Task: inverse folding
């Protein structure tokens, strides 16, 4: 499949890895929007959050990913907090069609987002 994040997950395209296990990968974003900006992806390809099903496998995988957010934030020394973002679909301004969560930190965020 011609998916850049599948290729990153397979090690075919290099990335600056922060955390990796059998199911997920976390790597630095190429165009950081904050002092710390990493992406957390499931290695399995989902086009977006809307492609995640209610199957036990998908629930386990997404639960696993979410359980690692705090672990990754600690690795990145985001003790003052952070923002976790998922852009989904056209209106969500998703540009890479492989499910990913942005973890941003190292500065005070503002609200509302653009
Ligand atoms: P989104 O707009 O939510 O789909 O976010 C896609 C993100 O992927 C953007 O922040 C890009 O900077 C980032 N990105 C695209 N290609 C790469 C890459 N090869 N390595 C790291 N980050 C990437
Ligand atoms: Zn993919």
Result:
């Amino acid at each position: 499949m011609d998916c850049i994040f599948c290729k990153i997950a397979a090690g075919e395209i290099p990335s600056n890895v922060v955390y990796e296990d059998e199911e997920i990968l976390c790597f630095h974003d190429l165009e950081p929007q904050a002092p710390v900006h990493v992406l957390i992806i499931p290695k399995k390809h989902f086009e977006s959050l809307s492609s995640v099903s209610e199957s036990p496998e998908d629930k386990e995988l997404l639960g696993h990913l979410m359980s690692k957010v705090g672990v990754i934030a600690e690795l990145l020394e985001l003790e003052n907090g952070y923002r976790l973002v998922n852009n989904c679909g056209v209106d969500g301004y998703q540009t890479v069609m492989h499910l990913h969560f942005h973890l941003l930190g190292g500065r005070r965020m503002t609200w509302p987002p653009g």
User: Anything to note?
Assistant: The pocket of adenosine monophosphate (ligand 1) is lined by residues 4, 15, 29-31, 39, 87, 93-96 (CB under 6 Å). The chain is about 25% helix and 20% strand. The first strand starts at residue 17 and ends at 20.
